[in-house]
Amino acid sequence: MKSIARSLAASGTVGDPIPMPWPRLNEALQLHTKELAIVAGAPGAGKSVFALNVAMSLDEPVLYLAMDSSPSVYARSAALALRAEVDWVYDVLRDEDAKPRLLEDLRDANPNMFINAGAVDVGGIEARLEALTEILGYAPKLVIIDNLIDLIVEGHVHTDTGFYAAALNPLKQMAIRHDTCIMALHHVTRKGGENSNPHGLGTRALKMTDLLYSGERESEHVLGIYHDHKKDRMNIQILKQRDGEADPEGGLRVPTIWHPPYGRLDAR
Question: 15-267: which CATH number, 3.40.605.10, 3.40.50.300, 3.40.50.450, 3.40.50.1820?
């Protein structure tokens, strides 16, 4: 046991800030290392777009666990690095004559971005985090899990309540041990606009009640992602924030301008 003064005096009590690339969100969202954040949205809402824009904007190393669709993550990362269209990147990758030039152009693009493909369990995430820490000499500031429901949890599937109990608390403790922020992307499987919205998937604003058993208890932050039906604006909702303003009803949101062909989000 420690007194308040000794607890606060201990090194590493408070994590380092993780800056967002959009001024309004950076002012509203107080994201730090030593924290677990959940980014929730319906399939196609733009969770990976949001996460990649954050990852590619940081000067600090990022470990991106592409457990859902690694080719899409590769192509979108390249498009952001080169400010090119995602479809153009795919076309070049299919052209064996043009591909070497693309790879050369990307050689020095964002050397702080490390991508791991394929589903792993919690132990696999920590092993990769420790390996990268050994290479760098320090832990990456941000670890992105894309997508939480693809995480391997022995004896459970993501529709089981036990899945989250077995996964989220160990992830939170991992973030504290390694002084990193773990951002887990998560499909909303309860409501979330899948069936009732005439404009399609990902266009319905979320509430915390849409995220039953999806980390609202274990995480310091819960963000919601949805876009308008024209796909020219993406909204980031702050549904929960341990030490800042939030609205579990979904009213606190920061709009960004979305350029789908480029996979880019700009300040509104």
Answer: 3.40.50.300
Closest CA to 60 of 140, 178, 135: 140
State the helix-helix crossing angle for 86-94 and 70-82, rounded to 10 degrees: 110
pLDDT of residue 108: 78
For the chain, give the percent of residues with pLDDT over 70: 88
Per-residue pLDDT for 7 more than 70? Answer: no
CB 187 within 8 A of CB 41: yes
**Cα separation, 130 vs 108, whole angstroms:** 24
pTM, full prediction: 0.91
| β pairing state of 253-259 and 113-117 | unpaired
Annotated domain spans of the chain = 15-267
pLDDT of residue 5 exceeding 50, the answer is yes
Pair 74, 115: CB distance under 8 Å: yes
HEC string of 237-262 equals EEEEECCCCCCCCCCCEEEEEEECCC
pLDDT digits (tens, 9 = 90+) for 74-115: 999 999 999 999 999 999 999 999 999 999 988 878 778 999
242: phi then psi, degrees, rounded to nearest 5: -60, -40
Distance CA 179, CA 39 (A): 20
Q: Which of 266, 235, 267, 264 is nearest to 52 (CA)?
A: 264
- pLDDT category of residue 210 using cuts at 50, 70 and 90: confident
